[in-house]
């Protein structure tokens, strides 16, 4: 998979928003490289406010980057309206809350057919809608055509949202917290559906989530984001069985199946308009607070020395002075 040309890439991507009342601009996405290859599922993981949703919206063309670029199929994304319309047929968004993303006055048929109508689909609309519903696991599809969202369960509504994305036969979907609002029993069904779509259709996916457990169940690769930048990335098995970054270790420690002592991070993530010097995680880092970084001789670097931007490919990488020092010591 690592030798395959990326389907979607972010290169040195930055998204800043104007500060309030003359404050410095907020660096929501701050120099991110990220590749997604054909048939690959990448999980973008981090706390609320870390910039992962802004990054996803920028990859969709909804938020133009302040600098850097997004490429799709090797070509830079064109932000002209006609080009974006064509692009969004190939890259579709699946939202977190199916109740909020479905119009309560539209039937299931109209909800799924909406994308076809926007893009001027010339084929058999009924056949396309039925096919999308069927692929999303709503069978027989005709039984759902005239139902309204309030007549469906939460899992069925999420399947309708997924069918609305699939009906345009995209190459990639961006799923923002796709199972966050669902019961535990239904979450597994939706995750299994996404995996089946990847296997049957060759669909790629970027799954945005705060839940490392979800990443473990669905992703080929994980990118951990903190304060606008990816701080650790690699194959999901490597990152989740041997996390190197203290932030990843803290996120993983709260999963019941981890067996580790939960790490409680102090404070809130810093304001993205005031990114700290050195490692952007150092003010909350349990390794620095415990004196481990001092003993490794990197405490001053943690506080003052900036870390390099991680490459967007599939290799395992970490942006952490202490983890790099520990790896050198082991070698």
Task: Describe the protein in words.
With 331 residues, the chain is α/β, with parallel strands linked by helices. The chain has a single domain, classed as 3-Layer(aba) Sandwich (Rossmann fold). Helices cover 37% and strands 19% of the residues. The strands form 2 sheets. A 7-stranded mixed β-sheet has the order 6-7-8-3-9-10-11, with helices on both faces. It has a 4-stranded antiparallel β-sheet with strand order 2-1-4-5, covered by helices on one side. Strand 4 and strand 5 (75-76) form a beta hairpin. Helix 4 crosses helix 5 (125-135), helix 4 packs parallel to helix 6 and helix 5 (125-135) packs across helix 6. It is globular. The two termini are 27 Å apart. One of its GO terms (biological process) is peptide transport. Residues 8-252 form the ABC transporter domain. Keywords: ATP-binding, Nucleotide-binding, Transport.
pLDDT below 50 for ≥5 consecutive residues: which ranges?
none
Can you tell me the CATH architecture? 3-Layer(aba) Sandwich
Q: In what order do the strands lie side by side in the largest sheet?
A: 6-7-8-3-9-10-11
Specify the CATH homologous superfamily: P-loop containing nucleotide triphosphate hydrolases
CATH class: Alpha Beta
Which fold name is given in CATH as the topology? Answer: Rossmann fold
N- and C-termini, Cα separation: 27 Å
Q: What class would the helix/strand composition place it in?
A: alpha/beta
Q: Categorize the overall geometry.
A: globular
Residues in helices, as a percent range? 25-40%
Percent strand equals 15-25%
InterPro entries: AAA+_ATPase, ABC_transp_ATP-bind, ABC_transporter-like_ATP-bd, ABC_transporter-like_CS, Oligopep_ABC_C, P-loop_NTPase
Domain ABC transporter: 8-252
GO biological process, one term: transmembrane transport
Family: Belongs to the ABC transporter superfamily.
């Amino acid at each position: 998979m690592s030798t395959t040309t990326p389907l979607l890439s972010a290169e040195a991507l930055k998204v800043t928003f104007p500060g309030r009342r003359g404050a410095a601009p907020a660096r929501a996405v701050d120099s991110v490289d990220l590749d997604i290859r054909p048939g690959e599922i990448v999980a973008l993981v981090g706390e609320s406010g870390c910039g992962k949703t802004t990054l996803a919206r920028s990859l969709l063309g909804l938020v133009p980057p302040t600098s850097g670029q997004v490429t799709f199929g090797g070509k830079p994304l064109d932000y002209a309206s006609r080009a974006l319309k064509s692009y969004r047929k190939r890259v579709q968004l699946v939202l977190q809350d199916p109740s909020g993303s479905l119009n309560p006055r539209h039937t299931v048929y109209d909800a799924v057919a909406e994308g076809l109508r926007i893009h001027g689909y010339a084929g058999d609309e009924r056949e396309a809608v039925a096919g999308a519903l069927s692929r999303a696991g709503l069978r027989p599809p005709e039984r759902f055509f005239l139902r309204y969202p309030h007549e469906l369960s939460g899992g069925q509504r999420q399947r309708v949202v997924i069918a609305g994305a699939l009906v345009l036969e995209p190459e990639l979907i961006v799923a923002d917290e796709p199972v966050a609002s669902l019961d535990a029993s239904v979450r597994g069904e939706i995750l299994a559906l996404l995996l089946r779509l990847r296997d049957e259709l060759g669909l790629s996916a970027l799954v945005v989530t705060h839940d490392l457990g979800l990443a473990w169940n669905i992703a080929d690769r994980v990118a951990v984001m903190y304060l606008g930048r990816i701080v650790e990335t690699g194959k999901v098995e490597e990152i989740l069985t041997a996390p190197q970054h203290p932030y990843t270790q803290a996120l993983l420690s709260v999963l019941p199946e981890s067996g580790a002592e939960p790490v409680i991070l102090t404070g809130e993530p810093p304001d993205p308009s005031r990114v700290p010097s050195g490692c952007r995680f150092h003010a909350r880092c349990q390794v620095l607070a415990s004196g481990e970084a001092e003993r490794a001789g990197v405490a001053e670097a943690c506080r003052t020395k900036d870390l390099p931007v991680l490459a967007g490919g599939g290799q395992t990488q970490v942006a952490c002075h202490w983890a790099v020092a520990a790896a050198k010591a082991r070698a």
